[in-house]
Amino acid sequence: MARQLNTAPDRAYSFVMGALAVIGLSILVVPVLIVLGISFTSSNVIKFPPPGLSFRWYEALLDPVRSRHVHVALWNSLWVAAFATAIGAVLATLAALALNRASRASARAVEAGFLSPLILPGLAFGLATLMYFSILGFRPSLNLLIAGHIVVIAPFIFRTTLASLTQLDPALHESSASLGQDGSTLSGASPCRSSLRASQRARSSRSCRRWITCPSRSSSPTRAPICCPSACGE
Amino acid sequence: MMETTLDVRVAAMSGALIVVVLILMIVMDRLTNLTRRMSM
Question: Quick one: which of A18, A71, A135, A148 is 20 to 30 A from B36 by CA?
Protein backbone atom coordinates (compact mmCIF):
# COMPACT_ATOMS: atom_id res chain seq x y z
CA MET A 1 0.00 0.00 0.00
CA ALA A 2 1.48 3.41 -0.96
CA ARG A 3 2.37 5.73 1.86
CA GLN A 4 0.05 8.74 1.90
CA LEU A 5 1.88 12.04 2.36
CA ASN A 6 -0.73 14.05 4.20
CA THR A 7 1.35 16.06 6.60
CA ALA A 8 4.45 18.17 6.32
CA PRO A 9 6.49 15.83 8.55
CA ASP A 10 5.59 12.91 6.23
CA ARG A 11 6.71 14.83 3.17
CA ALA A 12 9.88 15.98 4.92
CA TYR A 13 10.64 12.41 6.01
CA SER A 14 10.12 11.10 2.47
CA PHE A 15 12.33 13.84 1.04
CA VAL A 16 15.17 13.17 3.50
CA MET A 17 15.01 9.39 3.04
CA GLY A 18 14.92 9.80 -0.73
CA ALA A 19 17.93 12.13 -0.64
CA LEU A 20 19.87 9.69 1.55
CA ALA A 21 19.01 6.85 -0.81
CA VAL A 22 20.22 8.87 -3.81
CA ILE A 23 23.46 9.75 -2.01
CA GLY A 24 24.06 6.13 -0.99
CA LEU A 25 23.37 4.82 -4.49
CA SER A 26 25.61 7.49 -5.96
CA ILE A 27 28.50 6.50 -3.70
CA LEU A 28 28.08 2.90 -4.81
CA VAL A 29 27.36 3.36 -8.51
CA VAL A 30 29.32 6.46 -9.60
CA PRO A 31 32.79 4.86 -9.25
CA VAL A 32 31.63 2.00 -11.48
CA LEU A 33 30.36 4.47 -14.08
CA ILE A 34 33.66 6.37 -13.95
CA VAL A 35 35.61 3.16 -14.60
CA LEU A 36 33.30 2.36 -17.52
CA GLY A 37 33.79 5.84 -18.91
CA ILE A 38 37.58 5.67 -18.58
CA SER A 39 37.68 2.31 -20.39
CA PHE A 40 36.37 4.00 -23.57
CA THR A 41 39.05 6.72 -23.56
CA SER A 42 41.05 7.39 -26.71
CA SER A 43 44.13 8.65 -24.84
CA ASN A 44 47.14 6.62 -23.70
CA VAL A 45 46.68 7.43 -20.02
CA ILE A 46 43.80 7.03 -17.60
CA LYS A 47 42.10 10.39 -17.60
CA PHE A 48 38.63 11.44 -16.49
CA PRO A 49 36.69 12.84 -18.15
CA PRO A 50 38.10 11.07 -21.25
CA PRO A 51 39.20 13.47 -24.03
CA GLY A 52 37.68 11.19 -26.68
CA LEU A 53 35.81 7.92 -27.03
CA SER A 54 37.28 4.80 -28.63
CA PHE A 55 37.17 1.00 -28.50
CA ARG A 56 40.97 0.70 -29.00
CA TRP A 57 41.66 -0.54 -25.49
CA TYR A 58 39.01 -3.28 -25.78
CA GLU A 59 40.66 -4.28 -29.04
CA ALA A 60 44.05 -4.27 -27.28
CA LEU A 61 42.63 -6.70 -24.72
CA LEU A 62 42.11 -9.25 -27.47
CA ASP A 63 45.86 -9.28 -28.32
CA PRO A 64 47.22 -12.35 -26.48
CA VAL A 65 50.84 -11.22 -26.68
CA ARG A 66 50.67 -7.56 -25.72
CA SER A 67 47.93 -8.07 -23.12
CA ARG A 68 49.25 -11.30 -21.64
CA HIS A 69 49.83 -9.80 -18.20
CA VAL A 70 46.22 -8.57 -18.09
CA HIS A 71 44.95 -12.01 -19.14
CA VAL A 72 47.01 -13.69 -16.40
CA ALA A 73 45.63 -11.22 -13.83
CA LEU A 74 42.08 -11.87 -15.05
CA TRP A 75 42.57 -15.65 -14.84
CA ASN A 76 43.93 -15.31 -11.29
CA SER A 77 40.94 -13.17 -10.27
CA LEU A 78 38.41 -15.62 -11.75
CA TRP A 79 40.20 -18.58 -10.13
CA VAL A 80 40.17 -16.95 -6.69
CA ALA A 81 36.56 -15.76 -7.08
CA ALA A 82 35.26 -19.18 -8.18
CA PHE A 83 36.94 -21.20 -5.43
CA ALA A 84 36.30 -18.64 -2.70
CA THR A 85 32.61 -18.45 -3.65
CA ALA A 86 32.17 -22.22 -3.89
CA ILE A 87 33.93 -23.03 -0.61
CA GLY A 88 32.45 -20.02 1.20
CA ALA A 89 28.93 -20.89 0.04
CA VAL A 90 29.22 -24.46 1.31
CA LEU A 91 30.71 -23.51 4.68
CA ALA A 92 28.41 -20.54 5.28
CA THR A 93 25.28 -22.47 4.30
CA LEU A 94 26.18 -25.33 6.65
CA ALA A 95 26.83 -22.85 9.45
CA ALA A 96 23.51 -21.09 8.83
CA LEU A 97 21.62 -24.41 8.83
CA ALA A 98 23.22 -25.41 12.13
CA LEU A 99 22.77 -22.06 13.88
CA ASN A 100 19.18 -21.67 12.70
CA ARG A 101 18.22 -24.82 14.58
CA ALA A 102 20.21 -23.95 17.70
CA SER A 103 18.41 -22.11 20.46
CA ARG A 104 21.22 -21.80 23.01
CA ALA A 105 22.68 -18.42 23.87
CA SER A 106 26.09 -19.63 22.76
CA ALA A 107 24.67 -19.97 19.23
CA ARG A 108 24.08 -16.22 19.13
CA ALA A 109 27.69 -15.64 20.20
CA VAL A 110 28.88 -17.97 17.42
CA GLU A 111 26.64 -16.12 14.98
CA ALA A 112 28.23 -12.82 15.97
CA GLY A 113 31.64 -14.40 15.46
CA PHE A 114 30.69 -15.46 11.93
CA LEU A 115 29.56 -11.92 11.13
CA SER A 116 32.57 -10.19 12.70
CA PRO A 117 34.63 -9.95 9.45
CA LEU A 118 31.98 -7.58 8.10
CA ILE A 119 33.14 -4.80 10.42
CA LEU A 120 36.76 -5.06 9.33
CA PRO A 121 37.99 -2.68 6.62
CA GLY A 122 39.11 -4.75 3.65
CA LEU A 123 42.49 -3.10 3.35
CA ALA A 124 43.29 -3.53 7.04
CA PHE A 125 42.18 -7.16 6.98
CA GLY A 126 44.24 -7.89 3.88
CA LEU A 127 47.38 -6.41 5.36
CA ALA A 128 46.82 -8.15 8.70
CA THR A 129 46.28 -11.49 6.93
CA LEU A 130 49.46 -11.06 4.90
CA MET A 131 51.49 -10.28 8.05
CA TYR A 132 49.90 -13.15 9.99
CA PHE A 133 50.61 -15.79 7.36
CA SER A 134 54.14 -14.43 6.86
CA ILE A 135 54.81 -14.93 10.57
CA LEU A 136 53.50 -18.50 10.26
CA GLY A 137 55.89 -19.09 7.37
CA PHE A 138 53.43 -19.19 4.47
CA ARG A 139 54.48 -17.45 1.26
CA PRO A 140 51.90 -15.33 -0.53
CA SER A 141 50.00 -17.51 -3.03
CA LEU A 142 46.64 -17.91 -4.71
CA ASN A 143 45.60 -20.37 -1.99
CA LEU A 144 46.16 -17.73 0.67
CA LEU A 145 44.15 -15.29 -1.44
CA ILE A 146 41.32 -17.81 -1.60
CA ALA A 147 41.44 -18.31 2.18
CA GLY A 148 41.34 -14.57 2.81
CA HIS A 149 38.46 -14.08 0.38
CA ILE A 150 36.50 -16.88 2.06
CA VAL A 151 36.74 -15.00 5.36
CA VAL A 152 35.36 -11.88 3.66
CA ILE A 153 32.70 -13.59 1.52
CA ALA A 154 31.29 -16.11 4.00
CA PRO A 155 29.56 -13.59 6.32
CA PHE A 156 27.46 -12.24 3.43
CA ILE A 157 26.33 -15.72 2.42
CA PHE A 158 25.81 -16.69 6.06
CA ARG A 159 23.65 -13.65 6.82
CA THR A 160 21.40 -13.95 3.77
CA THR A 161 21.00 -17.71 4.18
CA LEU A 162 20.18 -17.36 7.88
CA ALA A 163 17.61 -14.66 7.08
CA SER A 164 15.93 -16.97 4.54
CA LEU A 165 15.99 -19.94 6.91
CA THR A 166 14.31 -17.96 9.70
CA GLN A 167 11.38 -17.37 7.34
CA LEU A 168 10.84 -21.10 6.85
CA ASP A 169 7.97 -22.57 8.80
CA PRO A 170 9.46 -24.81 11.52
CA ALA A 171 6.43 -27.06 11.12
CA LEU A 172 7.81 -28.20 7.76
CA HIS A 173 9.58 -31.03 9.54
CA GLU A 174 6.28 -32.38 10.84
CA SER A 175 4.57 -31.74 7.55
CA SER A 176 7.30 -33.73 5.79
CA ALA A 177 6.53 -36.58 8.19
CA SER A 178 2.94 -36.51 7.06
CA LEU A 179 4.10 -36.51 3.44
CA GLY A 180 5.80 -39.83 3.87
CA GLN A 181 9.18 -39.39 5.58
CA ASP A 182 9.70 -42.19 8.09
CA GLY A 183 11.39 -41.85 11.46
CA SER A 184 14.69 -43.40 10.36
CA THR A 185 15.43 -40.68 7.83
CA LEU A 186 13.99 -37.89 9.97
CA SER A 187 16.30 -38.65 12.84
CA GLY A 188 19.28 -39.29 10.59
CA ALA A 189 21.26 -36.99 8.39
CA SER A 190 18.39 -35.60 6.38
CA PRO A 191 16.26 -33.29 8.53
CA CYS A 192 17.52 -30.65 6.11
CA ARG A 193 16.55 -32.75 3.11
CA SER A 194 13.09 -33.50 4.46
CA SER A 195 12.43 -29.80 5.15
CA LEU A 196 13.84 -28.90 1.75
CA ARG A 197 11.62 -31.46 0.05
CA ALA A 198 8.58 -30.28 1.98
CA SER A 199 9.32 -26.64 1.23
CA GLN A 200 9.84 -27.47 -2.46
CA ARG A 201 6.48 -29.20 -2.58
CA ALA A 202 4.85 -26.26 -0.82
CA ARG A 203 6.36 -23.77 -3.24
CA SER A 204 5.69 -25.78 -6.40
CA SER A 205 2.00 -26.23 -5.66
CA ARG A 206 0.92 -22.70 -6.50
CA SER A 207 -2.61 -23.69 -7.39
CA CYS A 208 -3.38 -25.38 -4.08
CA ARG A 209 -1.95 -23.20 -1.35
CA ARG A 210 -4.36 -23.79 1.43
CA TRP A 211 -3.67 -24.37 5.03
CA ILE A 212 -5.08 -27.56 6.44
CA THR A 213 -5.18 -28.37 10.07
CA CYS A 214 -4.41 -32.00 10.28
CA PRO A 215 -2.99 -34.29 12.93
CA SER A 216 0.38 -35.52 11.70
CA ARG A 217 2.11 -38.80 12.57
CA SER A 218 4.19 -37.04 15.19
CA SER A 219 3.15 -36.95 18.81
CA SER A 220 1.57 -33.50 18.66
CA PRO A 221 -1.01 -32.40 16.12
CA THR A 222 0.15 -29.29 14.40
CA ARG A 223 -1.12 -26.67 12.04
CA ALA A 224 1.14 -26.91 9.02
CA PRO A 225 0.96 -26.02 5.34
CA ILE A 226 0.15 -29.26 3.58
CA CYS A 227 -0.53 -29.68 -0.07
CA CYS A 228 -3.31 -32.20 -0.42
CA PRO A 229 -2.09 -34.44 -3.28
CA SER A 230 -5.57 -35.11 -4.54
CA ALA A 231 -6.34 -31.40 -4.78
CA CYS A 232 -3.07 -30.69 -6.59
CA GLY A 233 -3.62 -33.50 -8.99
CA GLU A 234 -0.14 -34.96 -8.26
CA MET B 1 40.25 16.42 -13.52
CA MET B 2 41.88 13.06 -12.91
CA GLU B 3 44.93 11.58 -14.61
CA THR B 4 47.21 8.65 -13.85
CA THR B 5 49.83 6.54 -15.64
CA LEU B 6 48.16 3.19 -14.98
CA ASP B 7 47.60 0.87 -17.92
CA VAL B 8 44.29 1.70 -19.59
CA ARG B 9 43.79 -1.98 -20.42
CA VAL B 10 43.11 -2.54 -16.71
CA ALA B 11 40.18 -0.13 -16.96
CA ALA B 12 39.00 -1.89 -20.10
CA MET B 13 39.17 -5.28 -18.36
CA SER B 14 37.31 -3.84 -15.37
CA GLY B 15 34.64 -2.47 -17.69
CA ALA B 16 34.28 -5.85 -19.36
CA LEU B 17 33.95 -7.55 -15.97
CA ILE B 18 31.31 -5.03 -14.87
CA VAL B 19 29.24 -5.67 -17.99
CA VAL B 20 29.59 -9.46 -17.63
CA VAL B 21 28.52 -9.32 -13.97
CA LEU B 22 25.49 -7.17 -14.86
CA ILE B 23 24.45 -9.63 -17.58
CA LEU B 24 24.95 -12.58 -15.22
CA MET B 25 22.84 -10.87 -12.54
CA ILE B 26 19.99 -10.31 -14.98
CA VAL B 27 20.21 -13.87 -16.34
CA MET B 28 20.27 -15.45 -12.87
CA ASP B 29 17.39 -13.28 -11.73
CA ARG B 30 15.31 -14.38 -14.69
CA LEU B 31 16.27 -18.05 -14.27
CA THR B 32 15.53 -18.28 -10.55
CA ASN B 33 12.76 -15.62 -10.24
CA LEU B 34 14.78 -14.29 -7.34
CA THR B 35 13.09 -10.88 -7.22
CA ARG B 36 9.65 -12.47 -6.96
CA ARG B 37 10.81 -14.96 -4.33
CA MET B 38 12.39 -12.22 -2.22
CA SER B 39 9.24 -10.12 -2.34
CA MET B 40 6.97 -13.01 -1.28
Answer: A18
CB within 8 A of A193, min separation 6: which ones? A185
**B3 φ, ψ (degrees, to nearest 5):** -150, 140
Mean pLDDT of A14-40: 93
Instruction: Work out the pLDDT band at A29, boundaries 50, 70, 90.
Output: very high
Please indicate whether, in this complex, the C-beta atoms of B13 and A35 are within 8 angstroms of each other.
no
DSSP codes, A146-180? HHHHHHHHHHHHHHHHHHHHHTS-TTHHHHHHHTT
- Amino acid at the residue A222: T
Looking at per-residue confidence, does A43 or A219 come out higher?
Answer: A43
CA distances from A121 to A23, A25, A116, A127 (A): 21, 20, 11, 10
Mean pLDDT value of segment A189-199:
54
HEC secondary structure over A172-216: HHHHHHHCCCCHHHHCCCCHHHHHHHHHHHHHHCHHHCCEEEECC
Residue A82 at interface with chain B, using a CB cutoff of 8 Å: no
Q: B-side interface with A, Cβ within 8 Å?
A: 1-18
Q: If we measure between CA atoms, which residue out of B1, B10, B29 comes closest to residue A50? A: B1
> Residues with Cβ < 8 Å from A162, sequence gap 6 or more?
A96, A99, A100, A111
Distances A214 to A167, A174, A176, A191 between C-alpha atoms, Å: 22, 11, 13, 21
Smallest Cβ–Cβ distance between B13 and the set A40, A48, A74 belongs to: A74
Question: In Å, how far are A13, A27, A86, A233, B39 from A21, measured between CA atoms?
Answer: 12, 10, 32, 47, 20
CA B35 to chain centre: 17
